[in-house]
Each structure stands twice: as C-alpha cells, then as structure tokens.
Specification:
Blueprint: H1 6-11, E1 22-26, H2 33-42, E2 47-52, H3 60-64, E3 68-72, H4 81-91, E4 96-101, E5 104-107, H5 116-125, E6 130-137, E7 139-140, E8 155-158, E9 163-166, E10 181-184, H6 187-190, E11 203-209, E12 240-244, H7 246-253, E13 269-271, H8 276-281
C-alpha cells in the first residue's frame, strides 16, 4: 500500500496529531534511517512522522510501530523540509514539535531517565514555546572502513572549537538582536571553505510549539523572533543538542571536498559516548533550572 502524500496525510491524520510531542524525521538517504526513528521513539515522542521516498525500506519493527507514520516525500526530488514543517504547524497548532534529518539524534539533559515530554512540560512552565538546539557534528573515526563517514560504534565529535557571535538586526544596525546569537563550530567551522556561508551556523530551533501563522524560515529560524532566543529575559533556560552525521556525510559524498579529507580526526576529537552527561560537561547543552 503506497504511503500518503503530505496533503492527504494532513487531511486524515488519524491519531498522529492528536497529542504531542510529535517528531518529524526527513530522510535524505537511507543511512541510519532506522536507528534515527528508533532513537526518537525511545525518547518518548507520541508520534514520529517519517518523510521518505517510497523506495526507502524500513526495518520490520519500525514499520510495524503504531507510532511511526510514513509519508511519501522526496527531498532529493525537490520536496522542501520547510514547506512540510510549516504545513504540519498549520495543521496542529498547540502541539510541541521537533524536526531533524536521518542520521541525527536528539539529546537533552537527563534524557536517559526522562522523556522528551517531561522536559517540554517543564520548559512550558517557564513560559517558553521553543528551545534552542546545537547541531553537534559526529563523524566516523576511520573513513577507510566507513566511507560515508557514518558509524554509530566509531562516532567521534569535537570537544572544543565552538563559539557564538551576536546576531545582526537588519532593522537596527546599531544593536544586535536581543537574546539571539549565531553559533559556529564542528566540521562546518573546520571545513568552512566547503560550506556555503548561510549554512555554517550550528544553531537550530528544533523543538517548538506550533501556533497559528508561525513559519519556519529557510535559515532554521522562526517568524516569531521570541522563538529564536536562547533564553528568557530573567534566567537561563534549557537547551538541547542534535548530534548529527549529516555534515560529515555531505563532505565525504561531495566530489569537491571528499578527496581533500582523509580523516576528520584532529587533536580535539574525542569518542562520542552517546550520553547526555558528556554533552553537559562540554557545555554543549544547558540544564537551566531543571534538575
């Protein structure tokens, strides 16, 4: 039975958009697609919307899950992630949502013992409707064995080299935007000659609450500027991390960069431990007032 296209799915979503949080996973290829879906199911998302071409196969356990809803979508064929996210926002105002690509995994403070729903309940109690996430690059330690740079068992990350700059305000050249920063680091910083300028940032508002007229823009910021802030005015808030093989995979699949890269490892590389404590210790996410 063919998967529904997005308009057909939204016209009859069943229980998929009845309760949040809802995860939207966009498949660019089949690399670690099943592990991505499993990870977000295990995190406690009530529904996982899988946007992928009809030709992509899902593992039997993933395909059989009542929480996974497959939608026919082809990013390589010209379908837009941003249009899809905005369509789901419009269809389900009030729900907490999350989006990422295959080969990306959400980590948040204490995620080993608490669900994403519990975290977002606390975040909402602090009058926050969005959460800043840092996209932290992962890469295989041995590119001879893992030519696409993807390996869960050999995943490495940069332990330093991250920084932030004030975000300019085009409407006020004398003052940057309040409580907004542009964050950089990882492979997008180390190999910036291969990365277009507008794609070098590593900040993404990956967790947010849908509301009428809210729009995700093509730079991964939202039309409501308060959604783009890293914290409220009175104290630090929770932040999370999306650990991602996406940049490494792109650098090794692009003919313009693959032959320049024999290894992604350098003196600041460390094995990724697949645990929130490591990211907290490195300052790559913030627990805020949540303990």
């Amino acid at each position: 039975m063919p998967s529904p296209r997005l308009p057909d799915f939204l016209a009859n979503p069943g229980t998929a958009l009845a309760k949040g949080p809802v995860a939207m996973i966009f498949a660019e290829d089949e690399a670690e697609l099943n592990s991505t879906l499993r990870h977000h199911l295990d995190s406690g998302f009530k529904s996982v919307l899988a946007f992928l071409p009809e030709s992509f196969d899902l593992a039997p356990d993933v395909a059989a899950s009542e929480h996974v809803h497959r939608i026919a979508y082809d990013l390589a064929g010209g379908d837009s992630l941003f249009e899809a996210v905005n369509a789901v926002i419009a269809a389900a105002p009030g729900l907490w949502m999350y989006y990422c690509y295959n080969g990306e995994y959400l980590f948040y403070p204490f995620c080993e013992t608490r669900t994403v729903g519990e975290m977002l309940t606390f975040h909402a109690e602090e009058r926050r409707d969005a959460m800043l996430c840092y996209v932290i690059d992962l890469y295989a330690g041995d590119l001879d064995s893992h030519t696409n740079a993807v390996s869960l068992e050999q995943a490495h990350m940069d332990k330093s080299g991250y920084y932030a700059l004030a975000r300019p305000d085009p409407d006020n050249h004398n003052h940057p935007k309040e409580r907004q920063l542009d964050f950089f680091g990882g492979l997008r910083w180390r190999y910036e000659e291969h990365i277009p300028v507008k794609r070098r940032k590593i900040d993404r508002i990956a967790l947010f609450r849908a509301k009428p007229d809210l729009r995700l823009r093509d730079d991964h910021t939202f039309s409501d500027e308060e959604y783009n802030t890293y914290a409220c005015p009175w104290h630090h808030n929770l932040t999370s991390a999306v650990v991602s093989f996406r940049t490494a995979k792109a650098l090794k699949s692009n003919p313009g960069s693959t032959f320049d890269i024999q290894t992604f490892k350098w003196h600041n590389s460390i094995p990724f431990e697949w645990h929130s404590r490591q990211l907290l210790d490195l300052g790559l996410m913030e627990p805020g007032q949540w303990f």
